[in-house]
Structures are given as C-alpha cells and as structure tokens.
Design a protein that fits this description.
mainly alpha
C-alpha cells in the first residue's frame, strides 16, 4: 500500500507539535521580551482585520465548515473500515485538534491493538495526557516507547519534560544531561541544553 506524502506530513506535524508542547513545559512562564503576548493589541490594518482576538476561541459556530466535513468523512471511513490504521490515525489526530481528546484516545488505542510498537501513537497519547496534566499517564505512554527503544531521544526528552512539569526536576536534569552527553549533535540535544538552563532559573 502506497502512502500519500500528505499523510506523512500530517504525522510529522503531530510529532512536531508534541515536541513543541513538551518543550514549553510549565517551567517557563514568560516570553524572551518579558511582555505577555496575550495582552498585546492586534494591529488595526488590512492584514490583521479578520484575525480573531485571543478571547475568540473556536466554537461550533465559527469552526471552518470544510474541517467539519473532513471530520465527518474520516469518521465514515473509519466506520466502513475499522482496521485501516491510516484512517484511524487521521481521525484520531483530527479529534485531538478539535479538542475531543477523550474520544481520540480510544482510536489511538485501537491502532495500538494492531501494532503495539507505534512510537507515533504513544507520543500522541503522551501529548494528550500531558496537556491534561495527567503526568502519570503521559509518563506511562512515554515509557512504553522506551521499553522497546531505550535510546529514543524524543521519548527521553519528553520524559524529562514530564518530570520537570511534575516537580521532579532532579530526574528531568538527569535525563536531559544524558541526552546532551549521548546525543550531542542532535536538535534534541540543543532542546535539552535549553531546558537544563531553564531548570536552574
């Protein structure tokens, strides 16, 4: 079965989002400029006039009609072929983005029943639990990756972020120092260095 490049890009985007979220763990509260972005005024010009204010969160009324249609089509596809892990993954990802994380979890779990070594699925599940501040579950899913791939640098980094967010800063420090030492020429090593410096602030 040939996988379309768009699906690969979607998977990469989800993993990138997970890494970014884990990177910005609760230890850093301010931006580099020291100004709260949420309190800044949106420019009043032609470029920005249609952008929403930070208080205008997505609701059922203002969600893009094509996104709703895509979600419905994916749901229908999943119902017609519940063993198609590609469609299951796409649908679960859409549910996650639509803030229906509890529903997404069940679809991710179905994928794991077919293939229990899907690192991308464990990262997605850990991301969901991390955003819900369920650090025990986030750690559990991250450790599942490490049980079969003990040197997965992304899982190691995320484990450090989980620990840092749950006030286990010494454990976070140890895992991030390991990444810097054992994987020195990686982007994740740079993230670990930055996170180590934030731990000491």
């Amino acid at each position: 079965m040939k996988i379309k490049p768009i699906y690969m890009y979607a998977a990469v985007v989800v993993i990138a989002i997970a890494v970014v979220v884990f990177t910005s763990w609760n230890g850093s509260k301010t931006s580099d400029s020291g100004v709260d972005i949420m309190q800044q005024q949106m420019p009043d010009d032609d470029i920005h006039k249609n952008l929403k204010k930070p208080d205008d969160l997505p609701t059922k009324e203002n969600v893009n009609e094509s996104a709703i249609k895509q979600l419905e089509e994916l749901k229908k596809s999943v119902e017609e072929n519940p063993n198609d892990t590609l469609k299951l993954r796409q649908y679960a990802d859409y549910l996650t983005m639509a803030h229906k994380q509890d529903e997404a979890i069940s679809y991710y779990e179905k994928i794991l029943k077919v293939n229990p070594k899907r690192t991308d699925i464990y990262i997605s599940l850990a991301y969901i639990y991390f955003t819900q501040s369920d650090f025990n579950k986030a750690e559990e899913y991250t450790n599942r990756i490490l049980s079969y791939d003990k040197n997965n640098v992304h899982a190691l980094y995320n484990l450090g972020a989980i620990w840092a967010s749950s006030n286990q800063k010494e454990k976070a420090k140890q895992v991030w120092e390991r990444i810097v030492k054992e994987f020195p020429d990686t982007e994740t090593s740079n993230l670990a260095r930055n996170s180590l410096s934030r731990l000491q602030e």
